[in-house]
Structure formats: C-alpha cells, structure tokens
Write a structure and sequence with these properties.
about 400 residues, alpha+beta, six-stranded mixed β-sheet, 9 helices
C-alpha cells in the first residue's frame, strides 16, 4: 500500500491512538522504513523519528549531517546535533499526545513487531506518553496487498503448485531407473523449475526422506542417508515468488510415498493433519462470513485442538502459520498461540499460511496451504487443490 498520510490518520482514529511515532537507527526498524517507503540501501548513521498525528501535520526529527533523510515525506522538520537537542526534540514530538504507537511489544510477546529499543521507549514514556504497539498499524500499511501483488501471488502459485509434479515425477523416474535419488537432486530439480519460470526464493526448498521429514526445518542433504528409495516417505516444503519488484511469496508443503500403495501408518497421520488444516480454514471462513474480528491465536487454537484431541499434541512443534508478504515470513499477523500469543487481527488483503504438522521419530507430516482474505472478506485458498491423501509417487 502506497504511503498516504490521510489513510494512516484515519486508521489511528479507528484504533483510538493519538499518534504513530516511527523511529529508526542504522536500519534497525525495517517495518518503519517500509511503511515510509525508504529504500533498503538508504541506511543512514544517525537516529530519526517521524510523528504522524491522528489530526494535523506530521513532523520529522533528523540529524544535522543527514537532514534530508526524510525529505520525501510531508511535514516540517526539526534538526538536531547534540544528544540534548535530540531528547528535547523527542519531548516536542510527543507533547500533547497521550497514546503513541511504536514498533514495540509489551514484554516482547511478539518479537516480530518489537523493533524499537527499550531505551528509546523509555525516553518517550519519560515525556508522559503511553507507548502502545503499532502491530495492527504495521500490517495495515505494510502487509496489506494491492491488486498487483495479489495477481503476482496467484501467478507464482501456479508454478509452486506445478513444482510438486516436477518433484514427484523426477523421484519416480530416478527410482525406477537408478534405484534411488538424493534429496539434494530433487531440491535442485525444483530450483531448476523455479529458474525456468523466472521465480526466485531466499532459500532452496526442503526435501526430507523418512526421519528427516520429522524435522520441521531440516536442511536438505545434511542428514544420515539422504538417498530416497522405494518404500520411503518424503516431505517437500517449497516457497518462491516472481522475480519482480514488490512480488510476494507462495509457500506450500506436501507429502508423498515412494510406492503405489500408501501404508496405513502414513495415511492415519496425514488424515489428522489434513483435518486440523481444514479446521483452521473453516474458522477463518466462519469469522469473516459473520464479520467477526479474528486474531491470529484463535486460528492456531482451532488447528492445534484437532491434533491434541487425536493424542499427538506433543508432536506439533511449531505455530500453525505465518504471514506471507515480500518475505516468506511476512510482517503481518501470524497464526500463533504457541510461540507467541498473536493478538493482531487477521485483516482483509493479507495472506498467511496454515501448516499443521505431526513430527514423529520415523517420519513427519505437514500440510501447508496459503490463505488470502480478499477486500470483501472472501477467503481464498491458493496453490491448487488441497492435498487429500499422501501422494503414491510410483503410481505416476
């Protein structure tokens, strides 16, 4: 979403916040920089602040040797040199504002939002302001997609979905021809598919056989015995985006079995995971159909409860999902009541994963889909058809 003071001010009034105080020092606050449309390579060496009030004109506080740092933004500026002048400038910025939003999280309960150091928060509070979290503001003006980004996500999802057919077919061919294939070779085949379709990713996909699939963040090819053979269970987690400015990710996980008939032990665990995934999707659909505010922790609970009731709660070792944006782990609300208590709202025009898993010593099952909330509150599950069974790879 393009920077627009009037839209931010309207949101401040809706959230009952008097001002948003955005702060950065040497690139420490990537959220503020993105909201204010500051290029990643334009990192200065001095502190700056930018105050956006719910009513009235914004104001800047910048250092004398970098006095033009915020010149692309509207509002008057105060220039400081000495630290005493900086502190006086902060006092002036917050004077008369009771509730001030910053990239802060009480007790650091949400470290994804907490980008402002404790000392700066203390300084602002010392001037009489109540500092509150800007978490929902950040996602409203940084994590909300426009039509172009939604279109780029859908285009990327076509190729990430197709990547699984590439991988399963490659495994089947190699097993039939050579008796097996290394995890890393399957990973490389997926990366070649991405390159051929002009997709990029910050990290190659996860391909894990057998016990490696039970490690949620397994590094492909590093475990003992990485050769995929007939009779092996395989998990593939992949993510990529179009090679274009402002493109956003598609992030999917599916599982397969190197054989023609999937053993019941794999099917049983998969069906529990799939049911938990579907419970999360259903909760999101119901909440938006009823126009009910939905927080990220609620989705996590709905998904996790299914796995816990099936007796596998201890084997679900991560949050249910994460926001998706220009980074695969984006800056909006996560689906989490395990690692953090995510109280940020699930907002229209944002995207997130739902990816429950059960990770046993012998194998692990994860089913990951992406969920996009459109402008009218419609819930779109992207990346092709939902996986409904473990793929019998040698049936292809």
């Amino acid at each position: 979403m393009a920077f627009d003071v009037s839209s931010i001010q309207q949101a401040l009034r809706e959230f009952d916040i008097d001002a948003w105080l955005l702060y950065d020092f040497r690139g420490c606050n990537s959220l503020a920089r993105r909201v204010l449309e500051i290029d990643d390579d334009a990192i200065g060496s001095r502190r700056w602040l930018y105050r956006i009030p719910a009513e009235g004109e914004p104001h800047k506080l910048v250092h004398r040797i970098e006095a033009s740092a915020l010149d692309h933004l509207p509002g008057e500026k105060t220039v400081y040199l000495r630290w005493q002048e900086f502190e006086a400038g902060v006092a002036e910025l917050v004077n008369g504002f009771a509730r001030v939003a910053m990239e802060y999280s009480p007790r650091n309960s949400n470290p994804y939002v907490a980008r402002v150091d404790a000392g700066t928060v203390e300084l602002v509070r010392g001037e009489g302001a109540d500092v509150v979290s800007s978490g929902d503001l950040v996602q409203l003006f940084e994590s909300v997609w426009d039509d172009e980004q939604w279109a780029m996500h859908q285009a990327a999802a076509v190729h990430t979905n197709a990547a699984f057919d590439v991988a399963w077919n490659f495994i089947a061919e190699q097993v039939r021809s050579n008796g097996g294939v290394e995890e890393a070779a399957v990973r490389d085949a997926i990366m070649d598919h991405f390159a051929a379709n002009d997709l990029v990713t910050y990290h190659p996909p996860i391909v894990g056989r057998g016990p490696h699939s039970g490690l949620p963040h397994y590094e492909t090819g590093t475990g003992d015995d990485t050769l995929i053979r007939e009779g092996d269970f395989v998990l593939i987690d992949l993510w990529a985006k179009l090679n274009r400015p402002r493109a956003v990710y598609s992030d999917l996980t599916r599982t397969g079995y190197v054989g023609t008939d999937v053993p019941q032990k794999y099917t049983e665990i998969f069906e529990i995971v799939a049911a938990s995934r579907d419970a999360g999707i259903a909760l999101v659909r119901d909440a938006f159909a009823q126009s009910r505010p939905l927080q990220g922790w609620e989705v996590d609970d709905a998904v996790r409860n299914v796995i816990e009731e099936a007796g596998y709660g201890e084997y679900f070792r991560h949050r249910t999902g994460h926001n998706i944006g220009q980074e695969v782990h984006g800056n909006g609300a996560h689906m989490d009541n395990l690692e953090t208590h995510e109280e940020r709202l699930v907002l229209p025009r944002t995207c997130f994963s739902i990816e429950p898993g059960i990770y046993l010593p012998e194998f692990g099952v994860r089913s990951e889909v992406d969920v996009y909330i459109d402008e009218s509150g419609g819930v779109q599950v992207t990346g092709g058809e939902l996986q409904t069974e473990v793929v019998p790879i040698l049936s292809r």
